[in-house]
Amino acid sequence: MPLQWEQVVVDARDPVRLGRWWAEALDWTVVNASASEFEIQPAEGVVPGLIFVPVAEGKRTKNRLHIDLRPDGVRDSEVARLLMLGATRVNVSQHRAPADEVSWTVLADPEGNEFCVLGERRT
């Protein structure tokens, strides 16, 4: 029996705030606005989605899992938009090449969860 990827669960100090941030960043739809389970999807009924659940503690170390995002347009423009929304730049020392050779930019959401904005797909 094959499995279907339903969602990624994200621990959050403030699930509603963080879920709304990701909904705006991804231009996704809020499908459940509960403070105990704030869920977003690309469109209602389209999976996988993200669900944000409350936890008492804040993030302490680098993520063990992160999301890679590939923009439709230019990476730098999308990075600038995400920074204006409240993302921050992160240096996780995951690539030692010169900056102009790195094909992604590492950012963090408002609660410090790292994610990457990728450059154009190489052929």
Automatic annotation (TrEMBL):
The record ties this protein, via SUPFAM superfamilies, to: Glyoxalase/Bleomycin resistance protein/Dihydroxybiphenyl dioxygenase
Q: Offer one Pfam family short name for this entry.
A: Glyoxalase_6
Q: Which Gene3D superfamilies match?
A: 2,3-Dihydroxybiphenyl 1,2-Dioxygenase, domain 1
Lineage top rank: taxon:
Bacteria
Domain Glyoxalase-like intervals:
7-118
Instruction: Please give the CDD domains that the UniProt record associates with this protein.
Output: VOC (cd06587)
Designated name of the protein: Glyoxalase-like domain-containing protein
Q: Which organism is it from?
A: Pseudonocardia alni (Amycolata alni)
